[in-house]
From TrEMBL:
Designated name of the protein: NADH:ubiquinone reductase (non-electrogenic)
Localization (cell): Mitochondrion inner membrane; Peroxisome
Residue ranges of coiled coil: none
Topology versus the membrane: Peripheral membrane protein
Lineage: Eukaryota, Viridiplantae, Streptophyta, Embryophyta, Tracheophyta
Occurrences of domain EF-hand (ranges): 374-409
InterPro entries: EF-hand-dom_pair (IPR011992), EF_Hand_1_Ca_BS (IPR018247), EF_hand_dom (IPR002048), FAD/NAD-bd_sf (IPR036188), FAD/NAD-binding_dom (IPR023753), NDH-2 (IPR045024), NDH2-like_C (IPR054585)
Family: Belongs to the NADH dehydrogenase family.
Annotated GO MF terms: calcium ion binding; NADH dehydrogenase (quinone) (non-electrogenic) activity; oxidoreductase activity
Amino acid sequence: MRWTAFAWESASRAFNNRPTFTGLVVVLAASSGGGLVAYADSQPDQPQGFKKKKVVVLGTGWAGTTFLRNLDSKLYDVQVISPRNYFAFTPLLPSVTCGTVEPRSVVEPIRRILEKKGGDFKFWEAECFKIDPANKKIHCRSNMGTNLDGNGEFLVDYDYLVVAVGARSNTFNTPGVTENCHFLKEVEDAQKIRRSVMDCFEKASLPYLNEEERKKNLHFVVVGGGPTGVEFAAELHDFVTEDLSKLYPSIQHLVKISLIEAADHILTMFDKRITNFAEDKFGRDGIDVKTGYKVVKVSKDAITMQNPATGDIAVPYGMAVWSTGIGTRPFVVDFMKQIGQANRRVLATDEWLRVRECDDVYAVGDCATINQRRVMEDISEIFRVADKDKSGTLTVKEIQDILEDIYVRYPQVKLYMKSKQLNGIADLIRTGKGDTEKESVELNIEEFKKALSLVDSQVKNLPATAQVAAQQGQYLATCFNKMQTAEQNPEGPIRIRGEGRHRFNPFRYRHLGQFAPLGGEQTAAQLPGDWVSIGHSSQWLWYSVYATKQISWRTRALVISDWGRRFIFGRDSSGI
């Protein structure tokens, strides 16, 4: 009883002394489903008059959700906006298309995620259709109902904005794709594909169709030889051979699966050993892999593709899935025009995930790309900072004194040295000046430029994957949590242009490996250190990793039970 009274008194005191919050932080993070997140939490240990900044988060995909899960809600007033009220484990969408995993097993309600985190928050199921960076406002629209004006629109202001809205499928303006093809970006897409597969089989079973019409309905075309397209083709093949062949014995021999890729090989982002194995396995399985073909038109009944050797070829089909890459969402394109990025393909950020040419706006995930600063753009400033004695030349020792800061600010320097098997800065300088046996050897500005002239060749854009988005979300949340202390105690590298140090170290992606399920309980795995594994053992590694990476114990239990159900009873073929 005494403990209860003490707790109530403490809570009342904290409530009466609570600070007022006027700031709003908006966070926009790239993920497959656009959204905005905001929440607030009282913090009784803050000084009197402390005002929380308002953070607005757009999106509940990998980047946005990871940001929210790691953000200290006691420091900010957070609001979340997204057209979907859940997080989806997108790497398992190909499994959803064929009933290996059920749709609800791969989603977790965003309100449940925020509830577990604790603290007050606001979530609105709506979509952002305009960003006003000049006035720090977000224009949103809800499909759930209407306001007094009848359009369901409302405004949200922010102090910080995090954009995590993901990307849409890229059709490359190919005629007929939007009208006639399925995409595989959302849970709803996977459900539509599942129903469409069953519709094709049921239609092909009708008694009044001839054999050519049945072949057409049972021709499944996958456009795009990347990980998503390859995994879906493999899942579909397993579904047909292991389950549907028993239910539709009279037509199962008419089924054909085609995989069309414009490049010379599929899975070009993987090791060549994996690419070759995948192509050979698909050939043995009867999956028709057409490389070097570009789809130029999709009609209701046929797909037209081009090849330099054969010209245009029209192929009849029953269902087509388009998986050729990602494009920028329309409102992000409009935002890019406002801030002078109209000529770019995606939203550009710096190495700290801040949108270029726009204050207090951050972007993470598929909707953005990091525009890594080039060494040669700053070579004169680097020389100036390193030349502490203002002699106009640099010694090896002077370069070594700022070498760690250069590695952090320009990671391509270290990557270049590793690729060329250079043991140290002396080896690198040797390309600018012959004799570097002594630390006193000096380089002028032109020799310094020559030594570093090729390091920018190692700059590469990060892939648009869930792994990258999640790491960016976690990094950005860590920066937000440290923002106040970092002002007084910066931990980043030396500012090459300016004085002092950056508040934080720039974002660095750590590649943890990638998988390519190839069907038949075989998976290709490529892990750091050039470690490649292909076969049944890698499939069990895939099961372990994907079960571990589930966002909650609920989804973990559901996914594992779905896998067990499939082993025992097979996949469900209901057309729902």
